[in-house]
Amino acid sequence: MRGMIGIAVVAALGLCVAVAGAEDKKPDATLRLSGGSVAAGVGVAWSSGTLTYKGKRYPVEVTGLTVGDIGVTKIEASGDVYGLPKLSDFDGNYTAAAVGATVAGGAGAAVMKNQNGVTVELVSTTQGVKITVGGAGVSMKIRQ
Length: 144
Prior knowledge:
Strand order of the largest sheet: 1-2-3-10-6-7-8-5
Largest sheet: 8 strands, antiparallel, barrel
Structural class: mainly beta
Helix content: 10-25%
Shape: globular
Number of strands: 10
Number of domains: 1
Distance between the termini: 37 Å
Low-confidence stretches: 1-22
Number of helices: 1
């Protein structure tokens, strides 16, 4: 089962790169998110996240990212961050840069971009979860 999820994550990241047309082959940072489901159809405000940038970890606050499945209690997602020349460019409101997709193994993918040109390619690592960017976008910022 774990192997299938790993394959799904790799496939989804490949799909995201192809769809978004990321200009860099190597990510500037990585992002890992985890949260929990509140209620059916309500969505999730991610309670914790970590951005790894230039060998350091930074806590991230994320709101506005939702999931479409009912009954999920723990959600995890991870991905790559592109176009991040300086840490302060990460903060902002991200909007969908590509249509979300469900890939092999049931993983969901989302590609988002902020006003500073930072692109996040995110893949759910919880099987069967579809990641959706909220109508007002997704707010992400480094916690101070």
